[in-house]
Amino acid sequence: MSSMTKYPDDTAHKVLMTAMSMFGTEGVDAVSLRRINTESGTANTSAVHYYFSNKDGLVQAIIDFLHEKIWHPALVELQDLVAEEPDLRTVLEVGLWPGKQVLLKESWGIDAQSFCFQVITGLRNDYRLAFKKITDPQVTLMIRALRELLPEISEETLKQRIKFLMTEALVGHWTRTRIMHAVGLPNWTERIEQIYYDEYIDYTMGGLLAPSSR
User: Fold this and answer.
1) Per-residue pLDDT tens digits for 163-202
2) What's the start-to-end Cα distance of the chain, in Å?
3) For the chain, what is the domain count?
4) What's the CATH number where 179 sits?
């Protein structure tokens, strides 16, 4: 059952989106359920408890929402691509696209990416594991495809290069986008975002294909 089927009420959706924004900005532990109720503008002061039971349930509902909207479609797209024996650039473009898609295509994209960053870097390992559960199938498939395309690179070297790649994909995108949008940079448009992404793919390919010093 999808997150929006499970919580079809507009109030539940408003609470979920408000919580994602607040958690992304302040961190999950810093935000109380009472504040979420207030900020969401719901008349029912017990809306969070009614729809999500507690904070753990609310965090899981946000993760389920992101799985439904972003990560499951991304996995299906990558599965279809891998079956066609793609080249390196195409694997990177499709494999790294979920983190960019959420920013380029969704009005709530910055909130979603900030929420993911807070969950991954936060103190709650159960939240981190819940998030990894929805992202790992797609990420694992991308890494497998990269290994098949780069057999000449040692396993140790490839693992390190993939770590660099994933760090930028998460932390770099989050930091850059958060800062740029926070200061209201006037020319930070979807076109500029796309140019950045294309150049990021160029940079990533260069790193993966570089001669190894080992």
Assistant:
1) 888 877 777 666 665 665 555 555 557 787 788 888 889 9
2) 49
3) 1
4) 1.10.357.10
